[in-house]
Every structure is written in structure tokens, then in C-alpha cells.
């Protein structure tokens, strides 16, 4: 529950993974060479409560009621088809994958790079979309490949697993959860996977085909994936997009141009334009003559116009923020705003005073009010009195946090050292 969410960018070489991460990465912070932070936009409650002027995020930022909340991102080394048959890269890929909660599959939709990431023309990106799922399944979960995760842990031991399952009269979920726990499966996840699979036959009668189906459903639950169809600014993209849109679930596809996003942000940082991220709004000195924006020379002006024509006006935005939003959505993460003062939404006394909605924490679906207290601070848990939300409405300890009650103030008993004793 306490664990922070990690999203991994995967895809073949030169698909645009690193560009995509840089684009979502403002201000830039790198934790490890392949690990960084991106910022996901949410509607900040400061807008609803007229507190935009005093909204003061401790991390990330809030612009006109759009709150950018940090999430951990992994840049997974480009995987070349077949390369994972040798050890090296494939194992690194699996290690990275193991820590990820969701995947962003960056696909070069322009067809200008081949399966290995080399320059070409007319390559069909549908190959890449199918390939990645196949790659994860066959390399990580193959029931016949001795180097895969599941082969070692499931297939080989299956006889023993079945005997124990029958002897201990365990539930299917319990038995499978033990087997899948090494891949980060909780009982809830295994429960969802069984519901999704529709498999009702008793575990002791499952054959290889059933096991394959189980693994398929496990993958879908374990690695929710959003596909970023990247490089939409290039010529052949449009044709491929139409084809792909017909074939796959559109809710999991987002059109992106990481290059355009990086360009616009760079131009903004250098003072040439104002760019409202996630939208098609770009303003230059021509639009805002009284501003302190720098004037554009002909070359820059043309480049900006091209980005507008090829990306912003055609598709509505560069798509980079939408990918992050969708990824957080499929995970069901909920932004929670812990405050000390439920009336002015500040974090209480001392030098921290003043700013509203300082903290925003993304929690997993199903997190209760009391569990969140424990996540915030041991002291709040230890000296817990009660929790309340806007309007001094008390929240029971076992209330599951939703977006309707995500501004929470905790009251603690005297004895808690520094924490929430403020009277309201
Ligand atoms: N036209 C265009 N080019 C892009 C876009 N995104 C990335 N690129 C270019 O594609 C090339 C590869 O981008 P990277 O971000 O390095 O790709 P990667 O997936 O990280 O590649 P590896 O690290 O080799 O696996 C670079 O030259 C980028 O500038 C885009 O949206 N449009
Ligand atoms: Mg890269």
C-alpha cells in the first residue's frame, strides 16, 4: 500500500522512450541513470475552493488549478527482437519490469524505424505493438522456455502445487497468489485475474492450455499498458494511425509527439513563447506584443508553425500529458490532499503556514482513511483520534478514500510530538 507507483517506458530502440521521459520531466530530476520523475496533471482542489493564489505544492507545481503530481518513471533499455534470447539485455529488461506497476509502450508510429530501431521507410508499427506483448509473454512467462519466470516457478512445480492445493483445501486465489507473489501479485490482483479469465474448472484439472490462458490474464492485470503512438509529426504517421485505431482498444492508445513537446518546452524556457502544456495553446510575441517574450526570427517562427500544423492543430496536443494521465487512470490511483486545517487547507503552524494544499499523495485504490494516516506518519497512527474532510465531516477509519473525500485532516491525541493538534 505504501509503495510508490512506478511506471516503465518500454519499446524498441529509437521509438522515443527517452525523449518521452524528458518531455514529462519538468523540472528535470534524475534519480538513477534510467530512473526519473514525471509529472501527472490533476484538477487541483485549490480551484474549487478559490485558493489558487495560495496553493503551494511542496513537490511539483500547480498552474491555474492544474496540479502536477510527481510519479516515478523508468527508462527501460530498448529491447531488440531476439536479443532477449541471449541473457544480458533480456534479464535487465525483466528486472526492470518486475518493479513496474504499469507500462507505457512507446511505438514509432511513423514507420521510419525497423524492428531493431534502424532507419527505414514503410515499416508497419503494428508489428511492434504485438511484439512487445509476445515478448513479455514468451520470455517472462513461457511455460515451455526454461529461461522464463513462469516455467521455473509454475510449470515445473505444477504437480506439487496441485497436490498441496488439494490437500490444504486452499482457494484458487490463495494457491495462485503464492505462485505469482514473486512477480508482485497481491491476492486482489489474482482475484481480478480469475474474474477476468472466466475460468471456473477446478485447478487440479487445468491443462497446459488453461495455464497459458491464466498467464495471459495475469499479464493483463499485472502490467496495464498504455501505448504511446509516437512521432505523429512525421509524414506516414497518419496512415498507420488509422489502421492501428481500428485494430486496438482506443482507450489504451494515445497519439504523441515527444519531439514537439520537448521543442515547445525548450522554446518556453528560453523565453520565446508561452505554452500551456497538454493543450494546443501557444502564444508568441506577435500574440502578446506587450509581454516580455523575445521576438522570433523567420526560422524559429516557421518551426513553431510547423509544430502547430502537424501536431497541435491536427491532434489537439502533443499527447505527452495524456499518456501519463491515462496510465494513472488505469491503475486507479487517487490523489489525496492531507491538510492540518480543514478550513483554509494549510498545513498548520510554524514556518509552513500560509500555503494551501501543500501535499498531494497518490494512493492505490482501496486505501482506507486509517491506512493513509499510517502512510503519512507513525505518530498520526499512534495517537489517532479521528479524521475529517471538508465541512468538518468525520470520516470513519475504514472509509475507502475516493476523489469525493480526498482532502483529509487528521486529529491526534495529546502526546503526539509535532503533528496535528491544531484546533479548528
Ligand atoms: N519526428 C520525431 N522524432 C522523434 C520523436 N520522439 C523522438 N524522436 C527522435 O527519435 C530518435 C530516438 O529517440 P530516443 O528518445 O532516443 O529513443 P529511445 O526509445 O530512447 O531509444 P533507445 O534509448 O535507443 O532505446 C531521436 O532522434 C529523437 O529525436 C517525435 O515525436 N517525432
Ligand atoms: Mg533511450
List the helices and strands and how they pair.
Layout: E1 6-10, H1 17-23, E2 30-32, E3 35-43, H2 45-48, E4 61-63, E5 66-75, H3 88-99, E6 102-108, H4 126-141, H5 149-155, H6 158-168, H7 172-180, H8 187-197, H9 208-222, E7 225-230, H10 237-247, E8 253-255, H11 258-269, E9 274-275, E10 282-283, H12 298-315, H13 320-331, E11 334-339, E12 361-363, H14 369-376, H15 378-382, E13 384-389, E14 393-395, E15 407-412
Task: Write out key terms for the chains shown.
424 residues, 8-stranded mixed β-sheet, Ubiquitin-like (UB roll), ATP hydrolysis activity, 37% helix, Helicase, Ruva Protein, domain 3, 5-stranded mixed β-sheet, nucleotide-binding, OBG-type G domain-containing protein, GTP binding, 15 helices, alpha/beta, Beta-grasp_dom_sf, disordered C terminus
Hetero compounds: guanosine-5'-triphosphate, magnesium ion
Task: Give the tally of β-strands.
Answer: 15
Count of helical regions:
15
Order of helices and strands: EHEEHEEHEHHHHHHEHEHEEHHEEHHEEE
Query: CATH superfamily membership of the domain at 42-68 and 332-424, which one?
Result: Beta-grasp domain
Based on CA atoms alone, the radius of gyration comes out at 24 Å
CATH class of the domain at 42-68 and 332-424: Alpha Beta
Instruction: Report the average pLDDT across residues.
Output: 88
Query: How would a textbook summarize the main sheet?
Result: 8 strands, mixed
Derived structural class: alpha/beta
**Terminal-residue CA separation:** 30 Å
Percentage of residues in strands: 15-25%
CATH topology of the domain at 42-68 and 332-424: Ubiquitin-like (UB roll)
Low-pLDDT residue spans: 420-424
Query: Percentage of helical residues?
Result: 25-40%
CATH architecture of the domain at 42-68 and 332-424: Roll
Amino acid at each position: 500500500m505504501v509503495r510508490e507507483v512506478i511506471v516503465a517506458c518500454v519499446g524498441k530502440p529509437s521509438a522515443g522512450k527517452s525523449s518521452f521521459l524528458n518531455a514529462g520531466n519538468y523540472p528535470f530530476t534524475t534519480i538513477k541513470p534510467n530512473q526519473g520523475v514525471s509529472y501527472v496533471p490533476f484538477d487541483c482542489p485549490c480551484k474549487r475552493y478559490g485558493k489558487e493564489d495560495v496553493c503551494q505544492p511542496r513537490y511539483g507545481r500547480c498552474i491555474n488549478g492544474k496540479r502536477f503530481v510527481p510519479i516515478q518513471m523508468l527508462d527501460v533499455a530498448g529491447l531488440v527482437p531476439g536479443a532477449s534470447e541471449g541473457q544480458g539485455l533480456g534479464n535487465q529488461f525483466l528486472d526492470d519490469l518486475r518493479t513496474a506497476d504499469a507500462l507505457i509502450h512507446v511505438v514509432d508510429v511513423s514507420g521510419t524505424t525497423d524492428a531493431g530501431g534502424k532507419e527505414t521507410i514503410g515499416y508497419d508499427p503494428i508489428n511492434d505493438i504485438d511484439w512487445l506483448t509476445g515478448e513479455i509473454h514468451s520470455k517472462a512467462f513461457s511455460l515451455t522456455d526454461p529461461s522464463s519466470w513462469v516455467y521455473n516457478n509454475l510449470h515445473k512445480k505444477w504437480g506439487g502445487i496441485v497436490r498441496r492445493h488439494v490437500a490444504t483445501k486452499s482457494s484458487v486465489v490463495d494457491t495462485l497468489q503464492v505462485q505469482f507473489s514473486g512477480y508482485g501479485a497481491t491476492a486482489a490482483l489474482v482475484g481480478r485475474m480469475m474474474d477476468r479469465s472466466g475460468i471456473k474448472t477446478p485447478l487440479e484439472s487445468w491443462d497446459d492450455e488453461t495455464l497459458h490462458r491464466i498467464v495471459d490474464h495475469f499479464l493483463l492485470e499485472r502490467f496495464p499498458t498504455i501505448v504511446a503512438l509516437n512521432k505523429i509529426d512525421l509524414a506516414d504517421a497518419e496512415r498507420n494511425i488509422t489502421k492501428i485505431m481500428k485494430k486496438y482498444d482506443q482507450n489504451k492508445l494515445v497519439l504523441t509527439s515527444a519531439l514537439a513537446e520537448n521543442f515547445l518546452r525548450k522554446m518556453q524556457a528560453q523565453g520565446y513563447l508561452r505554452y500551456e502544456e497538454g493543450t494546443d495553446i501557444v502564444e508568441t510575441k506577435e500574440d502578446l506584443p506587450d509581454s516580455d517574450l523575445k521576438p522570433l526570427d523567420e526560422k524559429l517562427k516557421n518551426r513553431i508553425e510547423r509544430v502547430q500544423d502537424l501536431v497541435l492543430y491536427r491532434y489537439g496536443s502533443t499527447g505527452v500529458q495524456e499518456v501519463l494521465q491515462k496510465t494513472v487512470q488505469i491503475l486507479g490511483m487517487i490523489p489525496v490532499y492531507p491538510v492540518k486545517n480543514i478550513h483554509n487547507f494549510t498545513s498548520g503552524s510554524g514556518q509552513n503556514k500560509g500555503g494551501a494544499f501543500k501535499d498531494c499523495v497518490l494512493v492505490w485504490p482501496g486505501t482506507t482513511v486509517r491506512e493513509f494516516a499510517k502512510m503519512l506518519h507513525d505518530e498520526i497512527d499512534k495517537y489517532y483520534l479521528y479524521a475529517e474532510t471538508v465541512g468538518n465531516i468525520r470520516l470513519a477509519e475504514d472509509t475507502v478514500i475516493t476523489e469525493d473525500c480526498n482532502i483529509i485532516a487528521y486529529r491526534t491525541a495529546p502526546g503526539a510530538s509535532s503533528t496535528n493538534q491544531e484546533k479548528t
